[in-house]
Amino acid sequence: MSSTAGLVIPCKAAVAWEAGKPLVIEEVEVAPPQTLEVRVKIKYTTLCRTDFYFWEAKGSTATQLFPRIFGHEAAGIVESIGEGVTDFQVGDHVLPVFTGECGECRHCKSEESNMCNLLRMNPYRGVMLNDGKSRFSLNGNPVNHFIGTSTFSEYTVVHSGCLVKINPKAPLDKACILSCGVSTGLGATLNVAKPKKGSTVAVFGLGAVGLAAAEGARIAGASRIIGIGRNPSKFEEAKKFGVTDFVNPKDHDRPVQEVIKEMTDGGVDRSIECTGNVDVMISAFECVHDGWGVAVLCGVPSKDAVFMTKPINLLNERTLKGTFFGNYKPKSDLPSVVDMYMNQELDLDKFITHRVSFSEINKAFELMQKGEGLRCIISMED
């Protein structure tokens, strides 16, 4: 066991005290892991749109759990393990993941689902499942967790079902981006849309998730990948991910799905929607070819949003699917995605556009606020 096993560890964490206000680097105390928990030394983390959304907390007041330690795209090393943990050892290289795999529920036992009943993402809970308490404290007061990961801390405690052991040779500053957005987009294409070699694919939204979906289409051998977005400056970057055409809806006086259908002799074979905008979702569905077209939705809309289309679109043998985390079961599937990178089948470097030290974490938020870059790697030790 490590020399710190069973002890409270004081360390630095970036604490969000109020919605939308800069994070503050504080010295917090991290309690030892309890039953089925693992304490992890975070080496690298990054900022995802989900962190940003709940940090802004512009939605339901139920999201406003402050003070809070955000962060969920990260990589680290196991420092110590709690009682009952048998699949990790001190020193293992791991990815904390916002959704888990208990291995026992109907979802985990199903080959068709990755939506674990026990460990599914829950942004409204700020404590650990085991005892309903936080493992973080500051001046004796608890600090809320975020979706079971809280990686904006030098040490964090994670349920063992939300932790993925990976190849120790994989560079942690690259592998960390596979614990959320990139895997979501990649899996939406490879696991759900499943384009055939030579097919046409439309990708709506050219952020990190959308470009990961395009990367999946490139890996699958698509002959034409059409990127749809409102920022033409993103097209040059999108070419690195296999995008061959760019369509800006603002350039046309008719629905963009009609433009795409005209470009592709009746519609694309597959489409992937990565924005969460309901109107875009409708366009993504209505632009696929009848008879065999498949549209996959992976953007997250507001909970009250309503999707409307004509039923004849379904009767004409178009398929509409949704996906959560690209249909990857974290513990079972993510190690193979890391191996794709190690085998040079998947290029992660082009997703990484910025790097900052932990003390500069607020710069990552500023970059996302300005819509600049894809992923900003935050080094916990710089």
UniProtKB/TrEMBL annotation:
Please give the InterPro entries that the UniProt record associates with this protein: ADH-like_C, ADH-like_N, ADH_Zn_CS, GroES-like_sf, NAD(P)-bd_dom_sf
Domain called Alcohol dehydrogenase-like N-terminal: residue spans: 37-167
Q: Which residues form the Alcohol dehydrogenase-like C-terminal domain?
A: 208-340
One GO term of the cellular component aspect? cytosol
Q: Which cofactor does it need?
A: Zn(2+)
PROSITE patterns referenced in this protein's UniProt entry, alphabetically: ADH_ZINC
- One Pfam entry for this protein is ADH_N
CDD domains in alphabetical order: alcohol_DH_plants (cd08301)
Query: Which UniProt key words apply to this protein?
Result: Cytoplasm, Metal-binding, NAD, Oxidoreductase, Zinc
Identify its protein family. Answer: Belongs to the zinc-containing alcohol dehydrogenase family.
Please state what the protein is called.
alcohol dehydrogenase
Tell me what organism the protein belongs to: Chenopodium quinoa
The coding gene here is LOC110731861
